[in-house]
Amino acid sequence: MEERESGVMLWLMPADPSALPTLIDTPDGSRTAFNARFGEAYGSRFGAAGQARHVFVEGTDTHTHPTPRVLEIGFGVGVNFRATLTDAARRGVPLEYVAYEFDPATSEVLRAVAEGNEGTEHPAWTALLEGWPTLPTLTVEAEQVRLTVHFLDVLTADLPQAWASALYLDGFSPDRNPEVWTPEVAARLAGALAPGGILATYSAAGRVRRALAAAGLSVEKRAGPKGKREHLRAVREPLPPLSGQ
Ligand SMILES: C[S@@+](CC[C@H](N)C(=O)[O-])C[C@H]1O[C@@H](n2cnc3c(N)ncnc32)[C@H](O)[C@@H]1O
After folding, report:
1. Which domain holds residue 111?
2. Of 24, 41, 63, 192, which has the highest C-beta tally within 10 A?
3. 177 CB less than 6 Å from ligand 1?
């Protein structure tokens, strides 16, 4: 099995599948949780917040963008959102964040994973917990943040077109959640990126790289977060510069 945790998290599977997902403390002080349906953790056990920052926030250059527009597949327990929210708030820039999630964890799980960690003081996070989950779409606006979570299957949802400065492709691993890593989905995700927009994923699998390249993106390997050698980022070609007439 490729990616997320090399299968070693299976021992954490709760004996009673109806029990609350197992929380996992990670070495950087952040937390993730185990998802029994997919048999995998939501984030890296080597550092959930570290992965969110390195792979997704910095891997897409969101940390330097003056007006980031982030599209995320899938929202999970919100670790990537809190890392992005924290960065945007620290820099004083507005943030638009649109996510898709077809199997929402409970608000108790989101709260427990986040407790004492970054972003929890922000009113957008508080409002998210209050409204979670509002089907089919939850929208939160607070300070300079607008968050929209579509509780939909990304395979059939309408995606924004040429919109995202950053796309976080964060399904479960290609072995366990193969449907979100196909060339067809990659082509749709490429269409959701604005010109010059950057997609990042924790995966470095050859089939993911080939799917992103076949979608017309320029794919590069980048040093991975703690516990992982490499990850991928893929860039949509920018618009040509205006001729000076
Ligand atoms: C690795 S977790 C994402 C972790 C999340 N980004 C975070 O920061 O906590 C993968 C998520 O993708 C969701 N997912 C998988 N397939 C999906 C699909 N077809 N449509 C929408 N969401 C999907 C899963 O339910 C799960 O919550």
Report:
1. 48-235
2. 41
3. yes
